[in-house]
Specification:
The chain has 151 residues and is of the alpha/beta class. The chain is built from 4 helices and 5 strands. The protein has a 5-stranded mixed β-sheet, with helices on one face. A hairpin with a 2-residue loop joins strand 2 and strand 3.
Amino acid sequence: MAVKLSTSDDSLDESHEINVTPFIDVMLVLLIIFMVAAPLSTVDVNVDLPASTAQPSQRPDKPIFVTIKPDLSLTVGETQVAQDALGAALDAASGGDKSQRIFLRGDKSISYGSVMDMMNLLRKAGYLKIALVGLDASEAAPAAQGSSSAP
């Protein structure tokens, strides 16, 4: 048995409908954010840069190494080459196969600009597959620790 204590009709009726307008507003804002952020996350430079902790990829049978020494002289394999003769030396080493990967090594003391200049020379010569060579992080750490002298 139910008893109604109040006789006023001031009570609000319950609405069982969901207001989707705020949900649509949030979705449109997120869509705009992703439309603006997506083009910023793309990379325009075609360079294979493996992470330092990645497993090494399988080495080709006869890799072509281009080395930049601290005095900015270049070698292709074991042969010293002038910058203007780099394209001809690479053609001779690869047999004219410009789709072959070139492994670029640089001394730690050279500037980043020198490495970029070398990559531009390689691209101008027609070699677009460039891999940067470095030390494995697990091998480099013990060498760095062993070189310090303790008092």
